[in-house]
Amino acid sequence: MTDYLSDEELGQEPRSKADIDEVVWHAILAQIRRCASNGSFGSTFPETCPDGNYVVGTDIASFEAALLGEVPHLAEFRDAGTILDSLEMSMETPSVYDILDLIHFCWKTVGKPRKAGRHPFFAHDHLVFDEEAGKGEFRDTIETILRRNALAYQIETNGRVRRVVPPALGEVAAQQDFDTGDRELDRLLTSAQRKFLDPHPNTRQEALEALWDAWERLKTLDGQGDKKTGTRLMLDKAAGPTSPIFREALEAEARALTDIGNELRIRHSETDREVIARPEHADHLFYRMFSLIRLILDARSRT
User: Fold this and answer.
1) Does the model's pTM come out above 0.90?
2) 116 and 194 share a domain?
């Protein structure tokens, strides 16, 4: 990954931007077009030599057919020529999620080409591929673009695109294995955390649903299935016997979050439930609930 002097001298701008503008989009597209033209996607979609089964480049038709099968909204940009040409010429920028899905598709199919021989008659090179190196280089190149433009998206080493959460939410993003003693609660918490890091807002809505389901299940663990008793017992443990004011604050927070789950469109989908309008609202609610659950689980683990 490229280290620029401005990063060293001025520091990196926080990765908080959600929108991919035209400049960034064309920078990403330029890297994808470079990989298409130098044969990198031939690792998965090979164009072969007429004189033997040797790979000589990328079969663009196969590449684009598979791409549109997995990122179908890009077909709306098709004009004359290839879809990559059409995207280059279009005055419109695809949606953020189509761009991120395009990046993931390209990561899956890229490899680093290396010349393995020359065919003098057809004047082309025969290629072999190092998939691991190709994926790593593609990831680093796109990561540099995202990082330098302060975009809140990150490509993991497995090619999955995740969002970069604000520093205040860092503990939520930390990977951890939940071991609460209840398998279903562990599953719900793991699902909520994974979906919370997804860049797609619909998936982050599912993260809230899973987290609130985890909250409702947690209430029943200490009260033999009775939520009222279970809630009282777990809040008592979390506050301890010497912090009555904090215990009252915990109960108020627990009640407020339960009400939020019922009144907003989190646990219920009725038309009279208020929709969570902005991503930062979802982040705020997730952090509040996650912090409360984590406090309670830490207290349970000490007893």
Assistant:
1) no
2) no
